[in-house]
Each structure stands twice: as C-alpha cells, then as structure tokens.
Design a protein that fits this description.
The structure is a single chain. Strands 1-6-5-4-3-2 form a 6-stranded antiparallel β-sheet, with helices on one face. The longest helix has 39 residues. 33% of the residues lie in helices and 21% in strands. With 252 residues, the protein is an alpha+beta fold.
C-alpha cells in the first residue's frame, strides 16, 4: 500500500498546482478583462464546464492575420505548432495559399493527418472570429453528430480565435476554449492531467510561429523595392517567396 509519506506530498503538490499553477495556465497571456469577456462561439456548447482564455499580440492588423488562420488544418496549411505532434511531421505552410482561403460555416477541417477526426467550422466572421468545434466519442475518438442521440461517453469542445485591431496596427489575438464531456469524473481527470497542459504547450508554440510568419509577411510587404541594373541584376535576382515546397511549407 502507498503510505502517508507518499500520499501527503502528492496531495500537497496537487493542491498547489490547482490553486496557483492551473489558473495561470488557463489564462496565459490574457488580461483579466479578456478572460472574463464573452466571445462569439461561447454559446456553441452552452453547458460547458471547462474554459481557458489565452492571448498574444501579433505584429500586423487583423486583415493580415486572418489569411493565416483561415487556412489552418491537417488537410491544409497545418496548425503552426509542433508539426510532429499535430500535423504528422509535415511542416506547416510558410506562406498564404490562395486555394485554402475559402472557408464557410459547416465546413470540416481535418484535425488529424489521417482525416479520421475533424473540426467543424461553427462560426466565421472575417477577419474577427473563427470558431472550430469538435465532438468525439470516447474511447474510440470517432466524431459524432451532435444533432443525434449522444454516445454514453463523449467529449465536446470549441476552439475560438478572436482578433481585435490595436491602434498601432497590430492585432490582439484571444483564443478561447470551452469543453464538456461525460462521464464527468473521467473527463475532468483527462483535462486536468493531459488536456490543459497539452493545450498550453501547443497553443504557445502556435502563437510564436504565427508571430514569425505574420511579422515576416508584413516586413516583405513594407520593404521598399530594390532596383538593379546591369549584368549583376540577373545573378542577384532573389527567389520568389514561398518556394519551400509544394504548398510553401516551412519547418517550425
């Protein structure tokens, strides 16, 4: 049997994590006002019993950020996070791809490289709001239709991206997640031990890579044209941006 010498430190560590670390994880980078705000898509799962709000500032206006978000997906540009974990090792796109800019409410976006699981676009308001929804049966991980009778064990979630323009031409990006699942004890334990820490790791990586891509695109757009003349011009001609693969892939 496990003695008190083991149980008491574990209980103390768990209590400390729940009281001090977990609240910070669930509100990473967001102000108190941002965390308390109500966003489009919050009502998609009205009975949600878990929620997180994370935020960052990106170096371009919403109109320049939006094309990067709307092309996300395993069957599209990737997720700009840890590609080996969420994109089958395929590098996320390093450029805006025109053929991936058409997205509408109700569309499906693959969440796994196999295409076996997917997000559904729940709300879309360019260039301000993109809300993705997931409904999965447990333990199979198969998607289910929320308009039909629910399975006995399941998990539901929304992943919302909310863009606000700042006066200096940048964008405040707030990411809101909400979830609900049954049976409640199993869903809570899975979220507490795995879901919340994993979301923090993946979301912060996505923030970083979005900032890099958006910043580079803005720098290229604002750079003055370079005029060259003579025979050296041909030798110095730069390669067109985005020639890193068939879809402009870029290692992250």
């Amino acid at each position: 049997m496990i003695g008190k010498r083991v149980l008491l430190p574990l209980a103390a560590a768990g209590a400390g994590y729940a009281a001090f670390v977990r609240p910070r994880i669930k509100r990473w980078g967001a102000t108190r006002d941002e965390a308390a705000a109500v966003y489009p898509g919050d009502s998609v799962i009205p009975e949600a019993d878990s929620q997180s709000t994370m935020a960052t500032t990106l170096p371009a206006p919403p109109e320049a950020v939006w094309p990067w978000l709307v092309q996300m997906g395993c069957d599209r540009a990737g997720w700009y996070s840890w590609d080996r974990l969420d994109n089958g090792g395929r590098p996320s796109a390093g450029r805006i791809v025109p053929e991936w800019q058409d997205l509408a409410a109700g569309d499906r976006v693959d969440s796994a490289p196999s295409g076996a699981t997917y997000f559904t676009v729940a709300e879309l308001d360019p260039p301000r709001t993109l809300v993705l929804r997931s409904d999965l049966e447990i333990p199979t991980g198969r998607p289910f239709d929320p308009g039909r009778p629910y399975p006995r064990a399941y998990t539901q979630g929304v992943w919302g991206f909310h863009l606000t323009p700042l006066r200096d031409g940048r964008t405040r990006l707030v990411v809101r997640t909400r979830g609900y699942g049954r049976p409640r004890p199993a869903d809570w334990i899975a979220g507490f031990l795995l879901g919340e820490p994993a979301h923090l790791i993946m979301q912060l990586r996505q923030f970083r890579n979005l900032a890099r891509r958006v910043g580079r695109a803005r720098a290229r757009a604002e750079a003055p044209p370079v005029h060259r003349a003579g025979p050296e011009a041909e030798r110095a001609e730069p390669r067109p941006a985005g020639r890193t693969g068939p879809a402009g892939a870029e290692p992250v």
